[in-house]
Amino acid sequence: MLQYLLDLVGRLGHWGYLIIFVAAALECAAFAGLLVPGESLVLASGFLAHQGLLNLDAVTAAAALGASIGDNIGYQLGGPWTVAFVLLGYSLGASWRMAEAWIGHAGTVVAGAAILLAVLTWLGRRRARPSTQ
Q1: pLDDT value of position 83
Q2: Range of the domain at 72
Q3: Is residue 88 part of a domain?
Q4: Mean pLDDT, the chain, as a whole number?
Q5: How many CB atoms lie within 10 A of CB 64?
Q6: In the prediction, which pLDDT does 58 show?
Q7: If DSSP codes are grouped into helix, strand and coil, which group holds residue 132?
Q8: For residues 21 and 65, what is the distance between their CA atoms, to the nearest angstrom?
Q9: Residue 83 CB neighbour total at 10 angstroms
Q10: What are phi and psi of 66, to 5 degrees?
Q11: Residue 126 lies in a domain
Q12: Cα–Cα distance measured from residue 125 to residue 133, given in angstroms and rounded to the nearest whole number
C-alpha cells in the first residue's frame, strides 16, 4: 500500500500540491471537514516530503494557504448558515414537541439503517470468503 501511494504521488508531480491545498481548504471550510480527510492528507504529505517526493516548503505553503482560505470561507458562510439556524429554531419554537418527535424518529431510522447496512456487509463478506474445508 505504501509503495502504491509513493508511486501515485510520483505520477501526480506538481498536481499533488494543488490536492494538498484543496484538501486543507475544504477541511477548514464549514461542514466540508466532515467529508474531507484534510488533516490526514497534510500529515501524509509531510511524510512524502521527508521521503523526497514532495518539496517541504511547497507542502507547507500549500497546506497553510489552503487552511487559511478554508477558514475564511467557513467564517463567511457562518453568518448566513447561523441566521438560518436561529430562524429555524424560532419558527419551530411553537411546535417544538413535534420537531422533537420527528428528530427522535429520524435518529432511530438512521441508526436502524446503519445497523442493517453493517449486518448486510458482514454477511456479504462472509459469503465471499472461500471455505477452508
Answers
A1: 81
A2: 2-95
A3: yes
A4: 81
A5: 13
A6: 95
A7: coil
A8: 7
A9: 10
A10: -60, -45
A11: no
A12: 18
- For the beta carbon of residue 35, count every other beta carbon within 10 angstroms: 9
44 Cβ neighbours under 8 A, 6+ residues apart = 5
SS (H, E, C) 7-48: HHHHHHCCHHHHHHHHHHHHHHCCCHHHCCCHHHHHHHHHHH
User: In this predicted model, what pLDDT tens digit does every residue of 43-72 receive, in sequence order?
Assistant: 888 988 998 889 999 999 999 999 999 888
d(CA 38, CA 33): 7
pLDDT of residue 5: 63
Helices 56-92 and 15-28: angle between axes, nearest 10 degrees? 30
pLDDT tens-digit readout, 7-18 = 777 788 888 898
Longest dimension (CA), the chain: 64
124, part of any domain: no
- What's residue 88's pLDDT? 77
For the chain, how many structural domains are there in total? 1
Evaluate whether 23 touches 37 at the Cβ level (below 8 Å): yes
Domain contains 116: no
